[in-house]
From TrEMBL:
InterPro entries: Beta-lactam-related, Beta-lactam/transpept-like, Beta-lactamase/esterase. This is Beta-lactamase class C and other penicillin binding proteins. It comes from uncultured bacterium A1Q1_fos_1025. Pfam families: Beta-lactamase (PF00144). The lineage of its organism: Bacteria, environmental samples. Residues 23-362 form the Beta-lactamase-related domain.
Length: 382
């Protein structure tokens, strides 16, 4: 395939040329196999780049419309879906979850508020055992399981990353309000109106555009050193899918608002740019500035009980904290996905930056590839 051009393609405002250089270097070094990066500045796309290979065998170039499973970057789409309902006055983040979903009150969860689900502080960060990956494909079964179980720590007292179930928790609240599951609501109310090529629950007709993720190297974990009753272990084993699950039709078609969104940097940045453009995307008003401000009402600031690192969560998004490569005093909200994908919204500068790729690294929320691209965007002369 040496005659195929897999160098970086697309458009790039000259002010952001360093991003093209960084992306090309990552492709050349093998740090990236195939990837895309996008920047939206004050509602205008100023960077839309892609390159490399869409498959591990290096037979298919990454195209302009290639899609990839972005793992937990999907959570930002779940968050903006909930915020749309907040903006419409249909969802109160300070209301009890059981107000919308009465069954959720069981087993000591009657005091949990919607904001606790959105900020990983509910104490329900995974499913009680026994649970399988097939179980989470079954919406009624998986949400009923969550409604029945007890929290694993005192709700509201600390964050513990809701790695795989946050979309089921928030999504069921959305379903109780609207009658639509998360993926359907997102498609109808957000992606459709603005023309964003992002999917929570992918139609088989789109499978041919998907670049299969390349799983990360295994982490050297000594099970004997782990507290099997800790929120960390219970979350990551309840259930514990391999990255290769993303290759399956069952995963792609399911409604897993925490982890199975399919898109690319262009579509992720387009949706999320609502936050950095006063709530509007291409003339469609999704949110009010007042609702965007609510994201920055910090809900937690602690060493996360599941991730084991300092995290500060607002309403649906991560906020800058010690150890993060973002200015601590900046009005920035962000999140990323297992393996490296990342989305950053810089409200003060009206800039959204997205990086999506297929070669996974071991990190759960971004890595140096994305951080370098984001740094290049944030230091551009805008």
């Amino acid at each position: 395939m040496s005659d195929v051009d897999v160098s970086v393609q697309g458009s790039c405002d000259p002010r952001f040329e360093e991003m093209r250089t960084v992306l090309q270097a990552n492709l050349d070094s093998g740090a990236d196999l195939g990837a895309s990066v996008s920047v939206v500045l004050h509602g205008e796309t100023v960077v839309d780049l892609w390159g490399g290979w869409a498959d591990h065998e290096r037979t298919k170039p990454w195209q302009a419309d290639t899609l990839v499973n972005v793992w937990s970057t999907t959570k930002t789409m779940m968050a903006i879906s909930a915020l749309v309902l907040v903006d419409r006055g249909e969802l109160d983040p300070y209301q009890k979850v059981a107000h919308y979903w009465p069954e959720f009150a069981a087993n000591g969860k009657d005091g949990i508020e919607v904001r606790h689900l959105m900020s990983h502080t509910s104490g329900v960060s995974g499913w009680d055992q026994p649970v399988t990956v097939d179980d989470i494909y079954d919406w009624e079964k998986s949400t009923s399981m969550l409604a029945a179980q007890a929290p694993w720590w005192e709700p509201g007292s600390a964050s513990g990353y809701h790695a795989l179930n946050q979309g089921h928790l928030v999504g069921e609240v959305i379903r109780r309000i609207t009658g639509s599951k998360l993926g359907e609501f997102f498609a109808k109310e957000i992606a459709g109106p603005i023309g964003a090529d992002f999917h929570i629950g992918l139609s088989p007709t789109e499978f041919q555009r998907v670049s299969p993720v390349v799983p990360p190297p295994p982490l050297p974990i000594d099970l004997a050193t782990l507290d099997l009753t800790s929120p960390m272990v219970r979350t990551f084993t309840g259930p514990a899918p391999e990255a290769s699950v993303a290759w399956t039709a069952e995963w792609r078609q399911a409604d897993i608002g925490a982890a199975n969104g399919h898109g690319n940097a262009r579509s992720v940045a387009k949706v999320q740019s609502a936050l950095t453009n006063g709530g509007a995307v291409d003339g469609v008003q999704l949110l009010s500035p007042a609702t965007i401000d609510r994201i920055f009402d910090a809900q937690s600031d602690n060493v996360d009980l599941v991730l084991g690192v300092p995290e500060r969560f607002g309403l649906g998004y991560g906020l800058p904290c010690e150890g993060m490569p973002f200015a601590l005093d900046a009005k920035v909200c962000f999140w990323g996905g297992w393996g490296g994908s990342m989305i950053v919204n810089d409200i003060d500068h009206g800039m959204t930056v997205a990086y999506m790729m297929n070669r996974m690294d071991a990190g759960l929320v971004g890595d140096t590839r994305g951080f370098e691209l984001i740094a290049a965007a944030m230091t551009a002369p805008i």
